[in-house]
């Protein structure tokens, strides 16, 4: 079942870039996590942030979602600083599933739909049905999340991120724990969302995900060490027949 | 603030509690067991029982709501659902009021059950109006929920929430006039007692239930409780703010 369509023309997204980061700096106490990160993500792009554990991917994503504030530089989403206003148009899927385990999948999705202001019961019901069907959990919607497998919980989490039909989807490692078939169907859906004008920013450390992105940023120790399309990055590595993984390792070694 | 979001949060709290049968049983059965023990202990000392029973109603309302809120909010933080909530347009007051409404329902049910047991089984000399008791206990529940949210900030697991009980409750229980009238305490203890919310709740409940006074008669106690509620609500709101 397809997601209900949204009249995108009604949304006033005047900013030239949906996500616009310039020299972003962020520290946890004395530990500097982001050290002058810049990225400019236009509407309808699937943008991947790749890096090893601790490279700063999740911090960057949490900044975009409005959960943290930058210590320096500029970060705007839809042309303004992340706030409760920008939150209406953002769907966020955290790395940790962040679900109410005692409640059913349906109750979880319904609760967050209400938090996003979907007040019309019929429309909310349709949106919930669409996303639960999309993630393949419509039949299990009444089951408590506690009884669902890790992969299924991941799918509930994604359904929550999409239920209010956001214009920007921020996904922290969205395909971890998914089987190959479901992963492929997710990517089909991500592509169709991007085609309809939704912008997707996702973090990952798998090259499988990276290959699906329109553009990638390789992040190392809080700095963007390379940026471009998967094919551009493979070519830029200067290694004949280089895979994305080869390119990533090449840039990481250069950055060290 | 949004009434839709507030009620959705309250509704979610209720749904979670209804699925958590053990906690539900705990808030209903445990107070009755304690009340029965007190009742049977003081069977021949009606005067003591009359003084202790209304006070225990306040203790239960404060204690169980604090534990439930503290642990629930801690889970919100630990499981990442609070962070996820903060990525939605929800406001901090929506969250706090949602919690208040949700737990107020269970505090009210608890009060009805314990009050009925106290009046029918223990035959307490009860005179006040039921609704006035609820108003007073509702104010105490606001104090308790706020305290639970605030304290959960300083705990990183359920065990640590429990460790706040000796700090937060034991002094209040001993000093609120349950065991010894405040006037009979040493002066310095009386001063400390006057700084604790349970003291005012116990005093007002005893006045309403035993002496048949009205809310107007206990307006000072109610006002002080409202003051505690306002301060603690503000502290709680600060701890759940958007970064």
Your description of this structure?
The complex is a heterodimer of chains A (256) and B (243). With 256 residues, chain A is α/β, with parallel strands linked by helices. Helix content of chain A is 36%, strand content 23%. In chain A, the strands form two sheets. In chain A, strands 5-6-7-3-8-9 form a six-stranded mixed sheet, sandwiched between helices. A three-stranded antiparallel sheet of chain A has the order 2-1-4, with helices on one face. In chain A, helix 3 packs parallel to helix 5 (150-162), helix 4 packs across helix 5 (150-162) and helix 8 (230-236) packs across helix 9. Chain B has 243 residues and is mainly alpha-helical. Chain B has one domain (3-239). Helix content of chain B is 78%, strand content 0%. Chain B contains twelve helices and no strands. Chain B has helices at 3-19, 21-41, 46-79, 81-85, 92-121, 130-152, 158-162, 164-168, 170-175, 187-193, 197-211, 219-239. In chain B, helix 2 (21-41) runs antiparallel to helix 3 (46-79), helix 3 runs antiparallel to helix 5 and helix 3 (46-79) packs across helix 11. The mean pLDDT of chain B is 87. The chains are: A alpha/beta (256), B mainly alpha (243).
Topology:
The complex is a heterodimer of chains A (256) and B (243).
Chain A: E1 19-28, E2 31-41, E3 46-51, H1 57-64, E4 72-77, H2 84-87, E5 90-93, H3 105-115, H4 121-134, H5 150-162, E6 168-172, H6 180-195, E7 199-204, H7 207-212, E8 215-220, E9 223-228, H8 230-236, H9 244-255
Parallel strand pairs in A: 3-7, 3-8, 5-6, 6-7
Antiparallel strand pairs in A: 1-2, 1-4, 8-9
Helix pairs in contact in A: 3-4, 3-5, 4-5, 8-9
Chain B: H1 3-19, H2 21-41, H3 46-79, H4 81-85, H5 92-121, H6 130-152, H7 158-162, H8 164-168, H9 170-175, H10 187-193, H11 197-211, H12 219-239
